[in-house]
Amino acid sequence: MALLQDTKSHNFLCLKAAFLALEPANCFISLARQTCGGSLSEEVQNFILELCVENSVHSDILFNSTYVKNILKKVIVAAESTCEVVVEGLYERFAKISALQEYVMRGEENKIFKKISFLFPFGTSHQSCLTNLVVSLHCSLNLLEGDTGCALWPSSLFLSEFILSYPKLFSEKVCFEVGSGVGLVGVALAHVGASKVILTDGDRSSLGNMQHNLELNHLTSDKVHIQYLPWEYATEIELSKYKHDCVLGADIIYDPKCVPHLIRVLCMLLKSKGGFMFAEETEASVAYIATVIRNKETFNYFIGAAEEAHLSIVDVTENQQPLNLLPYMLSYDRASVRLCKISYLF
């Protein structure tokens, strides 16, 4: 009985996490059905209304009215389509948000606020040293305007899961991320006890959004440092001053024009011989790069350029699988992400 209760509580926790992460409505409804054996019971509907929607509407953080309205509509239609009783409050809240939506949007057409919850499975040894992590993020929807650096990509989710699954690799280390986007990986590194985190990006608008996200997560400048770093202008003297132990990157292999600059930066960083050591690698620093191979030609170009620059690339996706810390995120295709371990061949 206790196990069933724990499972049910975990299911509801996942449902709320999906709502806060702005999971697509269809994914949210599927998860809601799974929570109580396939139906949108009154219990599930009340949970969605009271602990998801009402909490969001009355929170101090701006909620995304378009998303909330869409979720309410999907829940009502799904319940009605199976002749289930629809909780009256759902209709009332849907009507209120529809009437007031133009006043509460407040620029959300360009920015959305998400909370990404990393949930450790029951009984894992990691729970003894780490707790569930909830990361607050402002992300951009305006990708067609070139605002990709402020978006949340699958590789950053995967790399964050990896960091949280293997905390000993990064605790008490100086960690340097290349192309840090919204700053999610940096928050994960701080959570596992990295002694210092350096986040970099070559887009100044991304840096501003990243700084805002770090403040949302109560991370101070003495713990996490943000640095403007256009790859094409980076110098060895500039990079060596950080005295980093390890290098990380998520979704940074995407543009063939940027590949030579990225390779040059990785070479300079990995030649720095930080203290990030393994039994089989007693001297060289190591980089962990997570990527989705969207264009095979670009990825192969990166591999070839890396070999010419004396970089060793090993795919460790299968050997060092992270825990599934985002079980509620049905839209996240973790199988599409590859994790590469890169070192410099002296």
From TrEMBL:
Pfam families attached to this UniProt entry: Methyltransf_16
Extent of the signal sequence: none
Full protein name: FAM86 N-terminal domain-containing protein
Upper taxonomic lineage: Eukaryota, Viridiplantae, Streptophyta, Embryophyta, Tracheophyta
